[in-house]
Known about the structure:
- The structure holds 4 protein chains of 4 kinds.
- Helix content of chain B is 71%, strand content 0%.
- By secondary structure, chain B is mainly alpha-helical.
- Chain C has 11 helices and 6 strands.
- By secondary structure, chain C is an alpha/beta fold.
- The relative contact order of chain C is 0.17.
- At the A-B interface, helix 1, helix 2, helix 3, helix 4 and helix 5 of A face helix 1, helix 2, helix 3, helix 4 and helix 5 of B.
Amino acid sequence: xxxxxxxxxxxxxxxxxxxxxxxxxxxxxxxxxxxxxxxxxxxxxxxxxxxxxxxxxxxxxxxxxxxxxxxxxxxxxxxxxxxxxxxxxxxxxxxxxxxxxxxxxxxxxxxxxxxxxxxxxxxxxxxxxxxxxxxxxxxxxxxxxxxxxxxxxxxxxxxxxxxxxxxxxxxxxxxxxxxxxxxxxxxxxxxxxxxxxxxxxxxxxxxxxxxxxxxx
Amino acid sequence: xxxxxxxxxxxxxxxxxxxxxxxxxxxxxxxxxxxxxxxxxxxxxxxxxxxxxxxxxxxxxxxxxxxxxxxxxxxxxxxxxxxxxxxxxxxxxxxxxxxxxxxxxxxxxxxxxxxxxxxxxxxxxxxxxxxxxxxxxxxxxxxxxxxxxxxxxxxxxxxxxxxxxxxxxxxxxxxxxxxxxxxxxxxxxxxxxxxxxxxxxxxxxxxxxxxxxxxxxxxxxxx
Amino acid sequence: xxxxxxxxxxxxxxxxxxxxxxxxxxxxxxxxxxxxxxxxxxxxxxxxxxxxxxxxxxxxxxxxxxxxxxxxxxxxxxxxxxxxxxxxxxxxxxxxxxxxxxxxxxxxxxxxxxxxxxxxxxxxxxxxxxxxxxxxxxxxxxxxxxxxxxxxxxxxxxxxxxxxxxxxxxxxxxxxxxxxxxxxxxxxxxxxxxxxxxxxxxxxxxxxxxxxxxxxxxxxxxxxxxxxxxxxxxxxxxxxxxxxxxxxxxxxxxxxxxxxxxxxxxxxxxxxxxx
Amino acid sequence: xxxxxxxxxxxxxxxxxxxxxxxxxxxxxxxxxxxxxxxxxxxxxxxxxxxxxxxxxxxxxxxxxxxxxxxxxxxxxxxxxxxxxxxxxxxxxxxxxxxxxxxxxxxxxxxxxxxxxxxxxxxxxxxxxxxxxxxxxxxxxxxxxxxxxxxxxxxxxxxxxxxxxxxxxxxxxxxxxxxxxxxxxxxxxxxxxxxxxxxxxxxxxxxxxxxxxxxxxxxxxxxxxxxxxxxxxxxxxxxxxxxxxxxxxxxxxxxxxxxxxxxxxxxxxxxxxxxxxxxxxxxxxxxxxxxxxxxxxxxxxxxxxxxxxxxxxxxxxxxxxxxxxxxxxxxxxxxxxxxxxxxxxxxxxxxxxxxxxxxxxxxxxxxxxxxxxxxxxxxxxxxxxxxxxxxxxxxxxxxxxxxxxxxxxx
Lengths: 216, 223, 275, 410
């Protein structure tokens, strides 16, 4: 009972949502609208749960003195600080000049940006150390990468300034993007769409059991 | 070339945290670990508060409470104003928290059932319309349009599309004509991966430019 | 130790140093470089330019600080462009980390052009639910976003008087750096509610949207910092993106050099092994 | 088909409008110009400008394919617009429940626009509309009232036929193959080269007596690629068990962690060596992207596995894994459907499963009916799409557009 009934509910809701795409009648569109409102609310609770779970996991790690537990204290303290400040601020917590906005602008924002800026360095070292042109395919990939990379920045046209406009690197790059790249990307889009649709079908037939596994 | 560092303590905090994370480039060190755990903690706390104040309160709590005093009472439901019915997602949301306690964790399956059902339906129809039907429909283009270049591009596009699709064909061994077509298809795919590589390099580099612009202009005030 | 050996075991931190310098130096001593406006950026510009003045536009800013260098210039230039035609802008943010930084751009441009909150622009802030929120907005925006980012009631703002759902907007501007973003708006909104749509995206996700340009689902596209710089040029402005193009150029040249050099070293090594 | 009944509607509505106009009492036409209150100075000016001529010919049609909440209104411009430009600044659309009833303003459009959709109607209720021309000289309502206007709810959105056909066709193909696979007659799925590359990598690791590193992707179980990565893990575990090569599987989320353990255990079971299963070969690391990568690169540098296999969903960290792995000289095989990460795997790994090949590998190795069915159904759809493209392009070149129009989805 614990597994069959949720699967049936998922299948019915999935089928109903697909139906609501084709049937504008209010008998179908109003319940579908309500289901989406439910999804919005439950997903929001999901994020709150994610935060609470992080709190529990790290409390556990600190309690058991797992390796690197002092850093986990930093994590827990900063999490609680953010929650307490946000709770005190109330509905206007994202207004200009509130303490919550200060923590967002001065802690969350710079670190989130810098975390990904590291990749700029790694991409250069990977280009030097791990970019092997051994086959025709890898050669074509490298050629397209070089044309697009240089053609997309102003220095590309500066280098090929002498050529007529539609032979310059930026024009070639645009032709590559609009034609060969586009054809292959469309084939990938179609393939991916069929993949998502077959997952959708498995949900409707109640064959998609992945979210049930793990606990019984 | 004037040099006047910012006086705002917030900018200093942001700059020092930025340098802590950049220190990972030299080698993994306590400063980086501190910044990383601070980041994970702050973002987890931020997600809790954001989703509570911007979704749980305005979309669930307020309409539910208001529905008792609103004209027509809590059961006067109509499109967009679901009043007492909002108790259902509220209960489902709370049921999610049973996952924190192993034994009764299975109750959260009801909430997951709703989410997976809704998104399976939305994604299936969304992908079917815009990534399947519209893409195929847009590929039906006249091959010979009089002038040379558009016709050449149209022919190239159709060949590329058909061969790339055949590359992802698994019901027959890739021999003979099918083998040839899939070899052509992989060439088109490689060009699109090359373009993807070039664009990804641009994205990553601009992230670094943004951070160094912050350090140079906002923090150190080098102008 | 032969040159090949040293190059092959080069410590990658030297490469990190070169990348850092190549980006830092042009920031301190900028160098003007010619910019040409590409067709897709012109499509984005013309779609806004062809709007009747004073119309109300939906702008969904689905990005967060991790996309700031590419997204901030696009958001600001598009806002300036819309405000210069004194269009009214309704902003939504479907990314968790986005509301704060998007509100910062809105306040920055609105103060610069003297626009009033609630009349000329409104920021409806964040809502969880990705595709579900997009489809709900097709039914009613005020019931999907009951409160705006400042906690006020959405329906009370003068700008929201004539806004009910997507049919109230002549154009949807999607500035996004991933999921949920432009792709989901094309799938759930552009096809379903047939609204005209343009997009500004990060460079890494730009190739994904070229099939939508060819099929006409998207009327224009800004791709990465280069797209933002070209849009600034098309508007006759020179903001953060244009300043960033010089270091971008040098860094790209260096990465291209790394690819060729890396393979050169391998080729030399193979030749040395055979010799 | 949709176009023709809308036209019939419009013709019948127009006839009705004219009928009402004849009956409507003339008094309607001269109601006092309730123009915007103007102060004394402009009062002198407005008396010079004549009140604008009324708009006319207001017709309506029920907006198709909706739940009966919108009506399209069209009218012909007030002659004033052409003769004395500027005399008409905007048109105000007014609505009432009775032909002469209290009028309420629904919407106003600038002069020059001749159509508007009223999206605030309730379904199956009769409304009466009129358009009022407004200008500096005051307001002049139309001579005729149009109605009764009723919006109906529709049971099927007939612009989405093509999407329905594609979905039904694809679902039928998939279910047919799933049924075929379940009833024993296993449909043919070709063995993709990626699987040979995986076996070769494990063989090489065995020769060198070094462990195998298997990374099932960074996402949770709700991502289909993670499920496929774990299915391939089971086959890899069978090989490593048979060759007695140690395997290390770092995992990012709790649920995939428990499944990965089951997969590796069943691998050793199948190889008939359940006792050789090492419990800490499968390790739970952390869902945080960079912490997960740091742990994996640590394993690469410390344990020096000879084969790295990345199968599942990867994001920006694919670059870091592929580069560090490349530097250790290990043989690397990767597979993901995240297209933006494929370039980095293709250039740095010895072999890469591209997009759907990951799907095909897990279907081939597991023989799972629902996976094989999905794959074969997609293959059949691709053949259908290729035929459509060929026929469609030929028709378009010949100037015939009905196929393109038939497929257009609103």
